[in-house]
């Protein structure tokens, strides 16, 4: 079965700093999804990556998928307290179109 | 307008009881899911339904029985609740056939005492 490893497990940054969260798969990714979860709430979809080398940006968040489609990174530029939360990567291995496997998440704290 | 809603938001019950969690989506999606998030925040798929048909059952104890009366609803019934069932349960939906993005409900925090 597919496993996703996220690093770091937790991250504390000062407001305004840049940061990167990584997600590594044990298998080639068919699709890679980034979600954000605020405490006590459901997950919010951020971005989906499917092609090797693909990069997408939304506001100050950029996600990339490497050429081999086994690693993705999420980069936040000039972090703000509103970026705080748990970031999860989810993967679709392509065998089944009805299942996402999630990493264990990265807890981001942004200090003002 | 709430896209994916769950009720109740909190559920506290005793071991051995039977309880249900309801989920409704108004997005017109064909596929719905139940996830369990444990105390360590690890999110794991439990069930997936497509057009009211069970597609995925991830080795979940048969005390858990999902029911989909129509495409917009996927309810989760749990029999003989155990302490280990305490977790946050999330319902989600996505457009039919392919995953694309999944839209999650706010979660139901189940505490079994």
Quick take:
With 112 residues, chain A is mainly beta. Chain A is built from no helices and 11 strands.
Protein described:
The complex is a heterodimer of chains A (112) and B (113). Chain A has 112 residues and is mainly beta. Helix content of chain A is 0%, strand content 54%. Chain A has no helices and 11 strands. In chain A, a hairpin with an 8-residue loop joins strand 9 and strand 10. The radius of gyration of chain A is 13 Å and the shape is globular. Chain B is mainly β. In chain B, strands 2, 4, 5, 6, 9, 10 and 11 form a 7-stranded mixed β-sheet that branches. In chain B, strands 1-3-8-7 form a 4-stranded antiparallel β-sheet, with no helix packed on it. The radius of gyration of chain B is 13 Å and the shape is globular. Chain B starts with a strand and ends with a strand. The chains are: A mainly beta (112), B mainly beta (113). At the A-B interface, strand 4, strand 5, strand 9 and strand 10 of A face strand 5 and strand 10 of B.
Record the SSE blueprint:
The complex is a heterodimer of chains A (112) and B (113).
Chain A: E1 4-7, E2 10-14, E3 19-25, E4 31-37, E5 43-49, E6 55-58, E7 61-65, E8 71-76, E9 85-92, E10 101-102, E11 106-111
Parallel strand pairs in A: 2-11
Antiparallel strand pairs in A: 1-3, 3-8, 4-5, 4-9, 6-7, 7-8, 9-10, 9-11
Chain B: E1 4-7, E2 10-13, E3 19-25, E4 31-37, E5 43-50, E6 53-57, E7 64-70, E8 73-78, E9 87-94, E10 103-104, E11 108-112
Parallel strand pairs in B: 2-11
Antiparallel strand pairs in B: 1-3, 3-8, 4-5, 4-9, 5-6, 7-8, 9-10, 9-11
């Amino acid at each position: 079965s597919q496993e996703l490893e996220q690093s770091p497990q937790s991250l504390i940054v000062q407001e305004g700093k840049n940061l990167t969260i990584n997600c590594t798969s044990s298998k080639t990714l068919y699709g890679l999804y980034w979600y954000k979860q605020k405490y006590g709430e459901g997950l919010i979809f951020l971005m989906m990556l499917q092609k090797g080398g693909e990069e997408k940006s939304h506001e100050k968040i950029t996600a990339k998928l490497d050429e081999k489609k086994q690693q993705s990174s999420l980069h936040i530029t000039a972090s703000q307290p509103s970026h705080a939360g748990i970031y999860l990567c989810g993967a679709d291995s392509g065998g089944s179109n009805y299942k996402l496997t999630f990493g264990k998440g990265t807890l981001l704290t942004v200090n003002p | 307008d709430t896209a994916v809603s769950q009720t109740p938001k909190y559920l506290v019950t005793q071991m051995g009881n039977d309880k249900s969690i309801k989920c409704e989506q108004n997005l017109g999606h064909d596929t719905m899911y139940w996830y369990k998030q444990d105390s360590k925040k690890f999110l794991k798929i439990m069930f997936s339904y497509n057009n009211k048909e069970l597609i995925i059952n991830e080795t979940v104890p048969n005390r858990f029985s999902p029911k989909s009366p129509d495409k917009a609803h996927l309810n989760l019934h749990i029999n003989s609740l155990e302490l280990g069932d305490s977790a946050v349960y999330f319902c989600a939906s996505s457009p039919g056939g392919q995953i694309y993005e999944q839209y999650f409900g706010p979660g139901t925090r189940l505490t079994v005492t």
